[in-house]
C-alpha cells in the first residue's frame, strides 16, 4: 500500500521550477489537497463502450496565507503562466516521494477565489489541465524520477502570513459606513473570482475578475432602509480588513465598477438590512499599492498589507 498525503504544494513563475524558481510560494496553512486524474471527453461507441481520449489532471487547494502579495502574483500566473509542483509524503523507508512537476509542455491552468468573510479568510486555487492519454502516462512515470525543486522549507507555514477575520471598514460611498457600528453587522464578505474560457487542453484562459461583496446588519429602521434605497445605484466603495497591528488589506472601487442591490426583511423572526455589490472587471483593470500608508510598512511589498485599486 502506498502512504497517502501531500507533503507540499507550491507555485512559481513560468519556466523557472527546474532551474532557479522565481517567486516561489508554498501553500502553508491549507485545506486537504487531492490530485484527481480522470477521463476527459471520452468517446462512446454504439454499444456504450467508453473509448480513450484524454485525461484530466486537477487539484484544488485552499490556503489561509492569502496575502496581498500572493494575490498580485496570482493575477500574473493565470492563463498558464506559472509552474506547479506537488510532492507526496514519503512512499517508503528509503524516503522516496512522488514529485509531480507541471512545467514546460505540462503547465496547468489556474483559477482562484480570494475570499474575506466573517468566518474565514482564504484563497482557493483550482489547478487543472487535460493531456493526451500517452502523454499522461509519460508524465506520471516521471513522478518516480523527478528531483524535487526547492520552493521553501517544509509546507511553507508562515504565521506572519496567516490571515484571520478582523473587520476594518465597509463604506458606500467612500467615507460613509453602511453600518456605523460593527456590532450591528450580521455578516460581511468579499469574493474575487477568475472568469474565462478554457483552451482545448482545459487550461483556463482568464479575462475577467468577478467581484461580489455583501454586508448585512441589524440596524434596519425604516429611516435607514429609505436612506439606503436613496443612495446611487453605483458609487465608490471601500472594503477594508485589518491584519496584525496597524496593517490592513484595502479594496478600493471607483464609481461605476459595481452596482448595488438591496434586500430587507421585517418579520417576526428576523429583521435586517442587506446590501450586495457585484460586477465583472477586466483582469488588467486593477492596480496594487504597497507601503506605509497603503496597508503595510515602508519596505513592504504586500506581505503585511496593501491596497488594491479596482477601476
Number of strand segments: 19
Shape: globular
User: What order do the strands of the largest sheet run in, or round the barrel if closed?
Assistant: 3-6-10-9-12-13-17-16
Helical percentage? under 10%
Share of β-strand residues = 35-45%
How confident overall, as mean pLDDT?
Answer: 95
Structural class: mainly beta
H/E element order: EEEEEEHEEEEHEEEHEEEEEE
Notes on the protein architecture:
- The chain has 311 residues and is mainly beta.
- It contains 3 helices and 19 strands.
- The chain has helices spanning 68-77, 133-142, 222-229; strands at 6-13, 25-26, 35-40, 43-44, 50-51, 54-63, 82-88, 99-102, 109-117, 121-132, 167-171, 185-198, 204-217, 237-242, 248-253, 259-266, 271-282, 286-289, 306-310.
- An 8-stranded antiparallel sheet has the order 3-6-10-9-12-13-17-16. Strands 11-14-15-19-18 form a 5-stranded mixed sheet, covered by helices on one side.
- The longest helix is centred in the first third of the chain and has 10 residues, at 68-77.
- The model has no long low-confidence stretch (mean pLDDT 95).
What's the SSE blueprint?
Layout lengths: L5 E8 L11 E2 L8 E6 L2 E2 L5 E2 L2 E10 L4 H10 L4 E7 L10 E4 L6 E9 L3 E12 H10 L24 E5 L13 E14 L5 E14 L4 H8 L7 E6 L5 E6 L5 E8 L4 E12 L3 E4 L16 E5 L1
Parallel strand pairs: 15-19
Antiparallel strand pairs: 1-2, 1-7, 3-6, 4-5, 6-10, 7-8, 9-10, 9-12, 11-14, 12-13, 13-17, 14-15, 16-17, 18-19
Amino acid at each position: 500500500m502506498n502512504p497517502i498525503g501531500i507533503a507540499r504544494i507550491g507555485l512559481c513563475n513560468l519556466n523557472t521550477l527546474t532551474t532557479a524558481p522565481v517567486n516561489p510560494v508554498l501553500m502553508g496553512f491549507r485545506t486537504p489537497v487531492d490530485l484527481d486524474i480522470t477521463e476527459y471527453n471520452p468517446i462512446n461507441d454504439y454499444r456504450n463502450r467508453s473509448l480513450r481520449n484524454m485525461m484530466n489532471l486537477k487539484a484544488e487547494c485552499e490556503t489561509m496565507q492569502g496575502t496581498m502579495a500572493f494575490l498580485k502574483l496570482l493575477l500574473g500566473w493565470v492563463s498558464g503562466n506559472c509552474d506547479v509542483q506537488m510532492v507526496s509524503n514519503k512512499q517508503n523507508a528509503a524516503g522516496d516521494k512522488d514529485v509531480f512537476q507541471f512545467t514546460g509542455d505540462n503547465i496547468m491552468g489556474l483559477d482562484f477565489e480570494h475570499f474575506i468573510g466573517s468566518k474565514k479568510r482564504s484563497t482557493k486555487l483550482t489547478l487543472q489541465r487535460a493531456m493526451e492519454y500517452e502523454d499522461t502516462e509519460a508524465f506520471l512515470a516521471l513522478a518516480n524520477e523527478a528531483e524535487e525543486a526547492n520552493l521553501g522549507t517544509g509546507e511553507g507555514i508562515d504565521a506572519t502570513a496567516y490571515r484571520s477575520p478582523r473587520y476594518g471598514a465597509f463604506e458606500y460611498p467612500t467615507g460613509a459606513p453602511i453600518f456605523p457600528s460593527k456590532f450591528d453587522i450580521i455578516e460581511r464578505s468579499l469574493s474575487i473570482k477568475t472568469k474565462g474560457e478554457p483552451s482545448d487542453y482545459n487550461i483556463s484562459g482568464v479575462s475577467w475578475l468577478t467581484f461580489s461583496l455583501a454586508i448585512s446588519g441589524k440596524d434596519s429602521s425604516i429611516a435607514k432602509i429609505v436612506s439606503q434605497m436613496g443612495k446611487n445605484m453605483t458609487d465608490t466603495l471601500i472594503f477594508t480588513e485589518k491584519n496584525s497591528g496597524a496593517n490592513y488589506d484595502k479594496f478600493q472601487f471607483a464609481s461605476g465598477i459595481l452596482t448595488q442591490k438591496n434586500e430587507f426583511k421585517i418579520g417576526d423572526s428576523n429583521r435586517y438590512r442587506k446590501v450586495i455589490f457585484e460586477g465583472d472587471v477586466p483582469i488588467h483593470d486593477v492596480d496594487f499599492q504597497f507601503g506605509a500608508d497603503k496597508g503595510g510598512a515602508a519596505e513592504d511589498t504586500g506581505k503585511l498589507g496593501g491596497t488594491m485599486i479596482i477601476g
